[in-house]
Amino acid sequence: MAYANAQALLEAIQPATGGTEIYDPATGELVGRVAQKTGEDLDAAVASAKAAQPGWDKLGHEERKRLLNAAADNIEANAEALAELLSREQGKPLNGPNARFEVGGAASWLRAATAYEVEPEVVVDDGETYAAKHYRALGVVGAIGPWNWPMMISIWQLAPSLRMGNTVVMKPSEYTPLSVLALVHVLNEVLPADVLQVAAGGRDVGEKLSGHPDIAKIMFTGSTRTGKAIIRSSADTVKRLTMELGGNDAGIVLEDADPKAIAQDLFWGAFINTGQTCAALKRLYVPESIYDEVCTELTAVAKAMPMGVGLDENNVLGPLQNKAQYDIVADLVADAVNSGATVLLGANPDDQAPGYFYPTTLISDIAPDNPLVTEEQFGPALPIIKVKNSEEAVELANSLDVGLGASVWSSDRAKALEVAAQIESGTVWINSHGTIDPRVPFGGAKQSGYGLEFGLDGLKALAQPQIIKG
Ligand code: NAD
């Protein structure tokens, strides 16, 4: 069915009474209430997902594809209500590459999980030996997600899992459970009972899911620190893991880049979702020869981007989602300013105003080892580091222990490709940053994680390869 607005959707997912209150990070107003699940509730969810799995698997790929596309239709029928709820709970504006964009992306990525055939692959057939690789369902998949893109990332985890014949138990972030509960509610109006479940709760529920004997695989997106805890708690049951962890993506501008032409794309590469994006550009290396020009052009673009309450259609930037993240950004910027770095824009939060708004901030003349550069700020504050040349930029880019994405900005494609090959990251974009695509595999290098999502690789990652020989 189509819900008229976020309130109607909320009424369908909230407990009749009680529950934990969730507040709008832009206004401090109550958004809704969520029923917290216990370890026992989680056991019950896993048990019913396990019972439902063989039947779901037996439906076969064609029927699962049909149901997943019908579920995507239902997201689209409820797009505005979902976007409004997401905006109120997460803080991101409706407009710009934000809440409506995220709901649209959720529907597209769900459909993309139906766009490939996963056929058995013949690996040897020489007249004497025959061997083929088949992709079987794993069982029940546990999905643990973050608060920055709660609907889109939930789809990234659940869509390939369901497509490959697995059932799913989700554990949303405690900061954005309503967005995930609403999305799953809309999907479950179409899907058979029990194949997709949510257990909203705290870390304890996530921990129990990662050690649960009836969970075959964990799809995790979140911080590197939590990822390591999940790797440890999943060890005893030798779970399959996809780890999409933190990043600190470098952008490397080459001397031949046109500062004016790249400024807008540089801005959105860094500030999409107000900087709260795993693969956002988090440190920008610019050569001396065009440093001032890049700073000027980027500042002009950044100044023109309105920040404010998400439901106001004028805004394209919003608040930090929570106080803890606000404090991280505010502290890193304050330390950078105290170290003598130059403020090109922002760095002047209004502590009296409601909401966790931190102004769009650009910092130049900053030391390459300043914590605003070397730590993941995950907010609207970009350090711009001056370098002598691309060799120095690559060395600095590779100096950290994370490597999710990176970008090279140049008018010379051959030169950009040459630099890209030297960067230690899961993706390198050329003349854009963070432009993900459901057909193109995505995953981290180094401590940004392992495993691939999206495309055919993403589907195979949710299957148990089985070799049949003979
Ligand atoms: P987080 O690690 O704090 O929390 C993520 C989830 O893990 C939450 O649901 C939380 O309840 C759960 N959790 C916490 N402790 C747990 C434990 N011990 N066992 C099991 N589950 C546990 O991350 P966050 O602050 O919500 O998200 C921000 C981080 O996520 C950033 O570092 C960002 O770069 C990263 N991220 C990565 C990607 C990617 O694709 N690589 C995408 C989005 C976000």
UniProtKB/TrEMBL annotation:
GO molecular function: oxidoreductase activity, acting on the aldehyde or oxo group of donors, NAD or NADP as acceptor
UniProt xrefs under PROSITE patterns: ALDEHYDE_DEHYDR_CYS (PS00070), ALDEHYDE_DEHYDR_GLU (PS00687)
SUPFAM superfamilies membership: ALDH-like (SSF53720)
Superkingdom of the source species: Bacteria
Presence of keyword Oxidoreductase: yes
Residue ranges of domain Aldehyde dehydrogenase in the record: 20-466
Coiled-coil residue windows: 65-92
Pfam families per record: Aldedh (PF00171)
Keywords: Coiled coil, Oxidoreductase
Residues the record marks as active site: E244
Family label: Belongs to the aldehyde dehydrogenase family.
Protein name per the record: Aldehyde dehydrogenase family protein
Organism, as annotated: Glutamicibacter ectropisis
